[in-house]
Design a protein that fits this description.
By secondary structure, the chain is mainly alpha-helical. It is built from 6 helices and no strands. 64% of the residues lie in helices and 0% in strands. The mean pLDDT is 89.
Length: 95
């Protein structure tokens, strides 16, 4: 390994330790949100994808796209999913 590359790696390790210790601020931060409101609501209600999709008035393909992260619910669907999570009885009363 070249000395220059080794020095660069050593400096990077020192910088990482300083960031972890709170002595230095990271130049960038990545946050990955793994929460999935569609899947969480469906599991909370103990429903299959087919039944939950019918309850929401969307296709099973749409629900699967939401759950697999290919698409995100928008507008009224987003609000309905929040209601499903916070007040599941309201959603199930209409079933």
């Amino acid at each position: 390994m070249k000395d220059e590359l080794f020095q660069e790696l050593t400096e990077s390790i020192k910088e990482m330790k300083a960031i972890e210790a709170g002595q230095k601020k990271a130049s960038r931060v990545y946050k990955i949100d793994k929460s999935n409101p569609a899947q969480a609501a469906r599991i909370q209600l103990k429903l299959s994808q087919e039944k939950f999709a019918k309850l929401l008035g969307v296709s099973v393909a749409t629900l699967r796209n939401w759950e697999q992260g290919r698409r995100e619910p928008t507008g009224a669907a987003k609000v309905l999913l929040r209601v499903a999570q916070k007040h599941p009885e309201a959603l199930l009363a209409e079933a």
